[in-house]
Amino acid sequence: MDDKPKKAVAVRYDGQDAPRITASGEGHVAEQIQTLAQDAGVLVHHDPQLAELLAKLELGEQIPPQLYLIIAELIAFAYLIEGRFPEQWHNIHQRLNTKA
Fold first, then answer.
1. What's in the keyword line of the UniProt record (predicted)?
2. By CB neighbour count within 10 A (0-12 exposed, 13-18 middle, 19+ buried), where does 63 fall?
3. How far apart are CA 68 and CA 72, in angstroms?
4. Cα–Cα distance measured from residue 35 to residue 84, given in angstroms and rounded to the nearest whole number
5. How many Cβ atoms are within 10 Å of 9's Cβ, its own excluded?
6. Which of 19, 20, 27, 72 could in theory staple to 5 by disulfide, Cβ–Cβ 3.0 to 4.6 A?
7. Mean pLDDT in runs of 10 for the chain (100 residues)?
8. Is the entire prediction scored with pTM above 0.85?
């Protein structure tokens, strides 16, 4: 069993700049972050290694370019399960179908 305290980090993306750290904590605080996110309908992704990396950042700090891909994939997945697409993707499915 892993004796490390559980960590949680909240990331917010405004659609313009790189995602930023909006909450971070471990132990009881991590549990509160996760509960608040779930209650608000926010995607909760369980990845201890990613949480460990993100927990090293300060509140309000943008994620580093090295993490853009994984965070972008998580944001895209969250959009997909909500049935949403970024504004610039307006009617992307129609554009893709016409190119086939």
1. Bacterial flagellum protein export, Protein transport, Transport
2. buried
3. 6
4. 23
5. 23
6. 27
7. 77 90 96 94 91 95 93 86 69 54
8. no
